[in-house]
Amino acid sequence: MSFRRPSVLPGFGLTFGFTTFFLSAIVLLPLAALVLAAGSMHWSEFVAVVSSPRALGSYRLSFGASALAATINVVFGFVLAWTLVRYEFPGRKLIDALIDLPFALPTAVSGIALTTVFAQHGWIGRYLDPLGIKVAYTWLGVTLALTLISMPFAVRALQPALLEVQRDLEDAAETLGATRFYAFRRIILPTVLPSLLTGFTLAFARAVGEYGSVIFIAGNLPMKTEITPLLIVIHLEQFDYRGAAALGVVMLAMSFVVLLAINLLQAWGRRRHVQAAH
Amino acid sequence: MATALKAAGPGAAPAETAERPGQNTWVSALVRCLFIAVSLTFLAALLIAPVATIFAMALARGFEVYLTSFADPDTLAAIRLTLINAAVVVPVNTVFGLAAAWAIAKFEFRGKSVLITLIDLPLAISPVISGMVFVLLFGLNGWFGAWLQEHDVTIIFALPGIMLATMFVTFPYVARELIPLMQQLGNDEEEAAITLGAGGWMTFFKVTLPKIRWGLLYGLILCNARAMGEFGAVSVVSGHIRGLTNTLPLDIEILYNEYNFVGAFAVASLLTLLAGLTLIVKTLVERTGYQRR
């Protein structure tokens, strides 16, 4: 097979050339520079940077808080998606549109707003403070910010899947005496499982790299409330480019793993979808 | 009973006359109330309270103080820089998106799926890394740092760096909207136009563009929202020079850290209004029947 199948349409050379050139110039070459910068380090130096106690502490927070935020979003995202798909109530369309707000709202804005609401004297923080729950400037705050910015990914992944649940199956199960919970576990959950996992992974991927909203609410104490992207910025500010690049490569590797997981999950979901249709 | 049937949807059509089991018990009513209550509480705490706080804080000392925050020369410079940045980045990424969608949707070639994955790549990368790669290339200790300094060209801590970093993070927005849309619309009409003697550009403007206009607008507004609101990537390359390399989101950070809360939230309110406008346009585009793929 040749590189390209013949077509009567013009413009392949121009558009393909421009696409690959621009992609290389803006995305691929800069990323290659990152890998090269980390690659120019001696192996022992690289290991020392990426496994320093401060770096390990930042991974623990970044990956832990992101996993927690993605889990919260899958649970509440399911409730939200279910509510939006199954129930009719005043303001439903407005709520549906609002779900995308974290996509449109700049992260610095969500950061300062969340911090203010959950600070000791904030609208919500003042009720949590007497209970001994401190959100702002703790890992809880980090999780909250990550939950906010990754929320749409979980809801938007689940909505189409819930629309497709065959309700006649649910009805049949209930007619045959299945309890609601049994019907949920055996009919709804298997149908939405791929979307549930995709939603989790997408939310996790977005949360791990997040910087803007977190730095305002985190407190940024080394080992405690310092996320990996912030540690990279600190290295850069000290002109330690190679240290920053080393940490960047670790995060980049993580992104690739997550990207691969998303592709595999989506392929799995499509396969199941096709099987279900037959 | 009647409402239960209405809510049943197409899946339950054959059972119209039969009673839907479990649909009108008090349990289902309870579950329904519970789900709606949990959803609304979650959104109220996470979205509505923060957005309301932005305006409450911005207007805390009255409307006049709010308005004078925008008279600050540094804030005005930030507004100007943000607009200039978006005015360059958004059109460039739109042209790229159109070219990529034409190449990918109209032709069959090897390695297409790899190309699509690579275009989506910036979405999976931390904004901090998106900015850092340009520091590594063009920064003082970077690959081309010495050469650039010799030739008196500044990219990092200046407008070109900000534009490059913004371009990187908003790179996929238009393309990923247009590629699936054009793939689904097919080539028949374009092939007919070419066969009947229309030129390539004429086919694009008269046949393709009208078909994809809503998808294009959709990608464009999302690209613009991100370009104007990007913080992490721009923060790394900007150098935070007041009045020179501060975009609006960076201006918020500086004002906030100086405890100028009215100023910080006033600027934040401006960006929140932009986000609201983006959502409105997005909803209107969806009303035309446009669906994301």
Structural account:
The complex is a heterodimer of chains A (278) and B (293). With 278 residues, chain A is mainly α. Chain A has helices spanning 12-39, 43-50, 53-86, 92-98, 101-104, 107-118, 125-128, 139-164, 167-175, 180-209, 212-218, 228-237, 241-277. The longest helix of chain A is centred in the last third of the chain and has 37 residues, at 241-277. Chain A is globular, with a radius of gyration of 23 Å. The mean pLDDT of chain A is 90. Chain B is mostly helical and 293 residues long. Chain B folds into 2 domains: 21-58; 62-287, MetI-like fold (Orthogonal Bundle), CATH 1.10.3720. In chain B, 75% of the residues lie in helices and 0% in strands. The interface between A and B is large, with 95 and 104 residues.
Keywords:
heterodimer, A: 278 residues, mainly alpha, MetI-like fold, 13 helices, 78% helix, B: 293 residues, 2 domains, 14 helices, 75% helix, 0% strand, disordered N terminus
Record the SSE blueprint.
The complex is a heterodimer of chains A (278) and B (293).
Chain A: H1 12-39, H2 43-50, H3 53-86, H4 92-98, H5 101-104, H6 107-118, H7 125-128, H8 139-164, H9 167-175, H10 180-209, H11 212-218, H12 228-237, H13 241-277
Chain B: H1 2-6, H2 26-58, H3 62-69, H4 73-106, H5 112-124, H6 127-138, H7 145-150, H8 159-170, H9 172-185, H10 188-195, H11 200-229, H12 232-238, H13 248-257, H14 261-287
What number of structural domains do the residues of chain B give?
2
- This entry's quaternary arrangement is heterodimer
Largest interface: A-B, 95 and 104 residues
Q: Give the overall average pLDDT of chain A.
A: 90
**CATH class call of chain A:** Mainly Alpha
Structural class based on helices, strands and sheet pairing of chain A: mainly alpha
Q: Which radius of gyration of chain B do the C-alpha atoms yield?
A: 25 Å
What's the CATH topology label of chain A?
A: MetI-like fold
Rough outline of chain B: globular
Domain count of chain A: the total is: 1
Shape of chain A: globular
At CATH level 2, the architecture of chain A is Orthogonal Bundle
Number of E-state strands of chain A: 0
Query: Portion of residues in helices of chain A?
Result: over 70%
Query: Which sequence of SSEs, written as H and E, runs from N to C of chain B?
Result: HHHHHHHHHHHHHH
